[in-house]
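Subject: ABC transporter permease subunit structure
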Amino acid sequence: GGLIIGFGLGIFFGLLSINKNWFLRWPATAYNEIFRGTPILVQVLFIFYGLPDLIGAPIEPLTAGIAAIALNSGAYVSEVVRGGVQSIDKGQTEAGLSLGLSRNQT
């Protein structure tokens, strides 16, 4: 379950990270730096022990594990999506535009 959620998060943040608008790009960069820069065990422990103190409600161990896997894998998928989109040659985009595709379709 966590990997499926992480895949969705990764696509979302990966597309945000290539946006030209700094205000939209910043959260994706922060997300990637935090969740790729800390060990997953630290994330699990923080979600299970630290987050309940912040929100004032207990978190089940399975929920904490799924959340940690989702957030961690989402950060790595985000980098894969960002790199994949940025690796598309400008000529490919121009070829799509010359065929009548819109900017969003290319």
